[in-house]
Amino acid sequence: MKKFVLLGLIEVILTGCGDNKVTNEYLVGNWDCNEEKYESKYNSKFKEYEDYYLESSEQFKHPYKIVDGF
């Protein structure tokens, strides 16, 4: 029981308990985005899916702005 209380206290200390709310200003700017598409094929012989593999990957920048308060 003491371990759970100690673990809870450590979690509160590490995460803090302040008001770190995400506002629109945090989201404004140019974001570097990476889109990855994975695929897996179904093996009917073994009746299971094979391992996933990377089919395609794309990197792009996406700008976010505040326009008319939104």
Please specify the SSE layout and strand pairing.
Blueprint: H1 2-15, H2 24-27, E1 29-39, E2 42-43, E3 48-49, E4 53-64
Antiparallel strand pairs: 1-4, 2-3
- Overall radius of gyration: 22 Å
Structural class: alpha+beta
Task: Give the rounded overall mean pLDDT.
Answer: 83
Q: Regions with pLDDT < 50 over 5+ consecutive residues?
A: none
Largest sheet: 2 strands, antiparallel
Tell me the span between the first and last alpha carbons: 48 Å
**What percentage of amino acids are in beta strands?**
35-45%
Biggest sheet strand order reads 1-4
Shape: flat
What does this entry look like structurally?
There is one protein chain. By secondary structure, the protein is of the alpha+beta class. It is built from two helices and four strands, in the order H-H-E-E-E-E. It has helices at residues 2-15, 24-27, and strands at 29-39, 42-43, 48-49, 53-64. A hairpin with a 4-residue loop joins strand 2 and strand 3. The protein is flat, with a radius of gyration of 22 Å. The mean pLDDT is 83.
